[in-house]
Task: structure prediction
Amino acid sequence: MRRVFIPTIFILMPLFSFVSPTHAAKDNLPTVEFPSAIHFLTPAGDDVAIGPGVYEVEAAESWLKLVSEGQERTEAMLLDAMPGTHEETLTESAVRFDGEPDNPDVFHLAMLLADGTGLEAVGTQSGIRPRGLNLAFVSKLNKARTFTARPKILHPGPVAQAQPAVPFKMVSKVPLQRVLGIPKACDSEKIMKVREKAGSNWDAEKIDCQLTLEKGWTITKKLIFEGAKANRVTLDCRGATLGDGANKDMIEVRSRKYKDKPKDDPNYETDPWKWERPQNVTIKNCNIIGSVRVWGMATNGEGNPKEYLDKEICIPFSVPQRCQKLEKPNSNELKKSSRKPGHTTRIQANAPKNIVFDKIKITGVGRNPFYVAPGVTYTKLMNSTMNGKSDKVAIYLDAESAYNTIKGNTIDVATAKDKTGDNTPGMKSRGWPIIAIDGSSHNTILNNRFSQTNRGGIYLYRNCGEGGTIRHATPSYNTVINNVFYYNKYTGGKPSVYLGSRDYGFKERLGHCDHDDGRPFGSSVSETDYAQHNVVMQNQFYKRRVYRTGAGGTVLVEASIADYVKTRNTKANSPNYIEHNQIVTPQTEVKQRRAGCYLPDASPNFLLDGRSLDTLKDSGNVACLTQSSCTDGELSRSNASDCRVNKVDFSCQVSGNNKGCQKEVACPSGKKLVGAKAACNLEFGTVSSNALQPILPNLIKVLKASDNVSAGSCHVGGNKLQRGQKEITINKSSPTVAVGCQEHDKNGGDCHIKGMLYCQ
Result:
């Protein structure tokens, strides 16, 4: 069995430095200079050391962005920053940088905006982040304060090697528009072009300015946001309608395909294609009749089977006017890329990133209403509604796309039957679900309400062979939390969530699954889905009945969770984490509930909204407590961990004795119990240290059950089990806990429990 692992890619942006007027920045952006390295956090929570060197500083969404002097802007780095308000009176944005007078290890870098808001990052010279860091320049709760002391700048090495104080310097002020890199508002001429009636389905307008429409307007041209010219563009429809009922994409956010050499260059044909992607585009408050597509190297996973010239031919005097784009040969660069190593990284780098759709309404008329094409990352569909119909699915997340978010939406789209499967012998009728996650990973589907789920809810799979394109990524590490799946009188077998759903019939395998053969990676090697490490938790499934066939024939019975969440081929499509889901009725549904958070590599593995707890992590050499908090599906961890945790091993074993083994295990004097873990063998044999090591803290697991399961058990405190695994809950105020195992056999029972206490 072959597994495909998808690397997590983060683009970091360096932050803090002194403001130095002696260094000229591109476009007059403020600069800071770091004479030594300072440690900050990236948006992913990783440590990054910035400096020494000079950096341009910008605000980027909710982060601070730095570009090293002399580097391309595409090589920028991002730092995690806290938003807040300030009390300075500013007509333009400004940057502040200073150290803490009482702690020379800590530094603050902030950008203050003219509207009274700001962003601030906190860094340290040592890389150790103390608890309770306070913001110096922006604050949500307290009055802002500005340090006036001269910061001590330390060169790399021991903190004690302090250098002479460096005078505090202010950054030059620049216009807010320039600091944020925000395009200007569209002029009246551009708005007039947008409002012109479309002459055909191909008629479009490219948007490279801030566009605001008005309620009551109807736009019939397609709006295209292409390449870097669309960076930071916002379309605010204010209730305007895009579309007149034609079955076409009304919004395209797409990368610009180009070559470095001009067309008259003799080497133009051999010059490789490149893509310039749009980033940080926001589209909101729109009423869309038609569909939306976000794409980079290709519009779909097959790699643009057709491409078109900029010209079209129209039939004269036709009513309505009938036009068609002229086709051109398709080089299918996506297919070529897929047949080389590094395809996932390459396609994601060339596809749109950070595209937000907020408070929109999409009425589907045929095409997939919302399509996220290969390689697209960090795109969000939020607080929106979707209805109408689709010839296939409502939302499609295509191959190698990742880190996209579907949150807080109401989706009520009538998807289609699989007519090919219905009418062709040897082919399966799968139907089209609401959401297709096709070789897409690390996506979040949170707080949505789905109806018309009789064709299926959320299906996770990986296509094989279509268009000859090799799919490299797998449908893994996706999170489906706190969604409602509504049913009304449905008795079919389509689940709400299907992990590894692909079910190709004989004809389909002959038709295309071998079209991507011949390479040592991805779907070329294996047609298996490999839907792994997906989280399906805290969802509410409306009560329904399903048909069961047994000895008494086929009867209708109440559905169980296993009918709502299915896994096909569990050997390949596992592990996945399916817990804390419930079946509800209109009376028992919990409405307007905020989402909890999945805790990876921890037990308990789920944290309710608004809750915090200390989680144990055992790396083998040391065990640490880290505080984790959950806010509506967003998991945050404290910057500091307490690693003053003692580990106490225990073991209890008997052979040929039905009385079993019992003992008390204690923490060292003055320490209290904060956690435990254990592994059990309830038949002949022992538990090795290697078998215990991968078990997470606060779990007890039976590695081998008794041949007669009911005859054996093991326990830690009041946590007793006979097979499988369960979470350990213990009295943390006590320094001791009872552990043991027992098995009955005609020749005397054999059992072994081995574990560890965590004490602090």
